[in-house]
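So, can you check this one?
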Amino acid sequence: MLSKAMTDHLNHQINLEMYSSHLYLQMSSWCAYKALDGCATFLHQHAAEEMTHMQRLFGYLQETGAFAVIGGMTAPPTDFGSLTELFEQIYEHEQLVTQKINDLVHLATTEPDYATMQFLQWYIAEQHQEEFLFKSILDKIKLIGTDGQGVFFIDQEVGKLAANKGKEATAMTDATATA
């Protein structure tokens, strides 16, 4: 059974993951509006991924007999000064999510709650990948630049990430169907 403190923190994380999904979906819409189709597709996929993170937490709470609570949330921003600013905001947001996961792990360690600590290991690895991904996109933006056709090339590079993620998902589905 989860402690009240752990249940409260996990519920907070559920809502943060849901906000992340809404944030990336809104950013996807901004990119589509700006004709940045590669970035729009990538962020739309990422919004769906964040929702699965939320559902995973939701399921864990239910499995442990705790009560999952979905709260209200602030609407995400709708305007971004530039594509660089947008990805800087994502990177900062992912750093916040990492800190919240670390807080959860700290709580699980100090209680001790070994089952939750084990459950959170997946999130630790996931957040490492998330921060690396968005830092690498920012590095590409700095490398390519945003002058002239730079934004076009950045959009193409980010679009390749979306296409690769789509291929990975198809391969997983195919592997599951043949198993």
Remarks:
- DSSP finds five helices and no strands in the chain.
